[in-house]
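Dear colleague,

As promised, here are the two records you asked about, laid out in our usual form so they can be pasted straight into your sheet.

NAME FIELD: protein one
SEQUENCE, THEN STRUCTURE:
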Amino acid sequence: MASSIEGPHRGGPRALSAGDRRFAAPARGHSRLPMPALALLMAALLTGCAATTGSTAGESSPTAATPAAVTPTAAAPTAAGTPGNAAAGNGAPGTGAPGVESTTQGRTDAGEHPDIPAPLGGLGPRVLALIPGNARQAVVVTGRGRDATRSEAVLYRRTASGWEAGMAWPAHNALNGWTDDHLAGDLRSPIGVFTLSDAGGLLPDPGTLLPYDESPGFSVDGTGFMGEPLAGSFDYVVAIDYNRVPGTSPLDRTRPLGADRGGGIWLHVDHDGPTQGCVSLEERHMRQLLLALDPEQHPVIVMGDAGSLSR
């Protein structure tokens, strides 16, 4: 069955390409309204994110749902930004491909925050310009190379004196690396700055301040690209607002930019292998991230390979 959420790859292993200091946050959570029917949830999920050989919910695929990323120009229901082309200055909302220099839904508009404090780890001026002025938390995911599957994630907190870094967490990204122009099924993670507004998982809310959808729809099985088991990959997830509608469950399949642009790009539990488009962290680190993220701090994720993020 065609996958519409980029998630674990179920099937035979595929060859890889080359390649806690957490910030304290109140441990109270917000529950989300229950999802429709369990059958719909399961159907939505069994087509998705990490690197599966069967079915999973999560990363984008030909029949993905709505986008909500953060880019230079806004035109979608998200913290800041809208979809756009990968060329700087191409600011027609809802058009083009998401990327660091594009106007992708969920991305933040450039030039809205002239008071950016001291820069954070290795980010270049173009990328820094995409971070919203009201963002006080930023998860920076830096890939080892354009085609590499391993990355490092750091949660930064914005203070009066600049950005303060937390501990570095090892991470995986998509099988084929990174891209400025993500398409469903390309097995690459989208590069850019995206808002983080919703969470969920198979397990109960650990105490996050983000809206949290606990649902059996986050169940996943099968094996990943390296033959690793995918069970538990969606125990905890944070939706990355790329081609999705913020304020909805990560399982929501609405795709503002169209199904061909993929969707279901999440932060989720690592399964010891590359993903289809998501970013994965060890379970303990996902819990720490969930407890640290605070919607009042307008958190974003800045993600891409080191070279792209230095632009």
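NAME FIELD: protein two
SEQUENCE, THEN STRUCTURE:
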Amino acid sequence: MVKNGWYIGAWSDEVGRTLLQRWIVGRPVCFYRLQDGSVTAIEDRCPHRKYPLSLGRLDGDVIECNYHGYRIDSGGVCVGVAEQPDTPKASVHRFPLVERDGVVWIWTGDVELADPALIPDTWWLSDPGWTHVKGLVPLKARQVLLAENLLDLTHETFLHPSSIGNAAVAGTPIEVTSEGDRVSFIRHMVGIEAPPFYEKSMGLTSPIDRWQDGDFYAPGVFILNIRLAPTGTEEPEGFHMKVMYGMTPATETETHDFFALARDYKIDDAELSTFQLEQQLAVMKEDVDALEIQEVMVASEPAGARESSIRSDVAGIRGRRLLEKMAAKEAAAGEAPAPRRPRAAVAGA
């Protein structure tokens, strides 16, 4: 798992004055909101006997551990112990956080590298001209499988034919580019049949133009920019959507699948928002079911097994290699290396 990167730790409305535990990159994290309204996140292990601080009691901005009464402040420092006059020199790690556009971003690696400028721009989550639905789905599969899933939307044709997929997705090639810690692709489908989801939510009738422009910001954020319009309609006319996935590793084989589905049309239509949330969750269930089965197969494959790949895998393979490169860099600096599976080469990957 890559540690040096910004991950979605929580949605802002998840964090309040109740202690919240969430495992992130193999570490238990305790989130809570301070009396001044800001958010903090500290290692969820009491320095005394490792009891979860999230099971303790919040006294002002100090957590009192519910096992032996250690008192830990918002910076992770012990400031006292119940029934003992002297204070032990003890502390836990405090994670760098940034709260922006309703998202609590967390940095789990070297604190000296935690540059907020590296966080992807999510302006539409707070723009009054847009509305969105959001949530979190648990995934019992390693993060890289989800990254590959999102970077190769060809699977929509086969896995989601009753909602967002049709033959045009698999039948239209993508253009892939890479720059720094980002992998991007473009798929513009012109004069195609409208998938059921878009017919119902936008009132579109075939033929339509459908654009999918995706960006993977390693190690854990994917943003898909979608445009749909009657064929021949010029940009910026049409319907626009943005789908963000926060692929936050919980452990080596479990992932927090955060999602936000935003639109710039019918922003006051609550019924449409409910429909889109239901459809998004249905699509994600199909993905989760597939990825959890895939996890079982990947985890049980023999050492040295190879895998066939095709042209549509280029973006996914670049994303995987980028994660491997980042993990290898951390390994060279003393971090644990990420597991790797042999793959067959793909032209252009």
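A couple of things worth noting about protein two: The chain is about 20% helix and 30% strand. The mean pLDDT is 92.

Best,
R.
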